[in-house]
């Protein structure tokens, strides 16, 4: 199989809560896979998540199936430790493919060093082909999270040769537990200041309305 796959981040891996995978696939034997479907299997830790509504914008490039956490708002502390998975069915549109998969990072657990990190492994790209077409070639197991989507025994999953790549560490800034008392005090002072401001505004408004009402009665 003369296909290769590589991936990278659009943005530097240590900046921002909005990231993106870029998976590039090239081959000089695309004509051999006309009866096959191309899939990419991604896994994320609980620190990261996919937005299905955002992924829908890439419907011309792929369809997707999601497994795992679907809540887009909860921080890490409000969730269990299980991550999530994504399986793409990529449209074969040319010899060179560039697949963009955006994802986001959650607010992490407080840490004394002010950061929380997680590891993201390289995705697995594979073809699902008629078994008779690729007889004698070792077949990958279908991703266990998506067994309900698994194809029949008449098809085989063939891994695409990938360029060597190490797992990527992602990191997000988080609160320091040692600063909590300062944050709590600041929050209380802010709430009190807002309350006092509202009282002053309410009093000024009431006096203005009362004065205008009394003035109108005199006239």
TrEMBL record:
GO cellular component term, pick one: endoplasmic reticulum membrane
Pfam families per UniProt: PIG-X
Pathway(s) it belongs to: Glycolipid biosynthesis; glycosylphosphatidylinositol-anchor biosynthesis
Superkingdom assignment: Eukaryota
GO biological process: GPI anchor biosynthetic process
Membrane topology designation: Single-pass membrane protein
Biological role: Required for proper folding and/or the stability of a subset of proteins in the endoplasmic reticulum. Component of glycosylphosphatidylinositol-mannosyltransferase 1 which transfers the first of the 4 mannoses in the GPI-anchor precursors during GPI-anchor biosynthesis. Probably acts by stabilizing the mannosyltransferase GPI14.
Family: Belongs to the PIGX family.
Protein name: Protein PBN1
The species this protein was found in: Tetrapyrgos nigripes
